[in-house]
């Protein structure tokens, strides 16, 4: 992995969520699952910046951010 061997401490790790094959999603259960999947794929314990790629108009931003 590119961020191993001391490199991780020198970078800010950012990733996003919200766009899926089923469309734009912002419900907290999806956000939680997407975050956990990102951490697993990246083989990391934390993400410095986790942001919503597109706003899901069916879910208020307060509800979406409830997980974060």
From TrEMBL:
GO terms for cellular component: cytoplasm. The keyword Oxidoreductase applies. Keywords: NADP, Oxidoreductase. Residues 4-68 form the NADP-dependent oxidoreductase domain. GO terms for molecular function: oxidoreductase activity. This is NADP-dependent oxidoreductase domain-containing protein. It comes from Quercus lobata.
């Amino acid at each position: 992995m590119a961020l191993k061997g001391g490199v991780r401490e020198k970078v800010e790790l950012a990733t996003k969520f919200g766009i899926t094959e089923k469309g734009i999603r912002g419900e907290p259960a999806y956000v939680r699952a997407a975050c956990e999947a990102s951490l697993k794929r990246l083989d990391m314990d934390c993400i410095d910046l986790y942001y919503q790629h597109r706003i899901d108009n069916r879910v208020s931003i307060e509800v979406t951010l409830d997980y974060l």
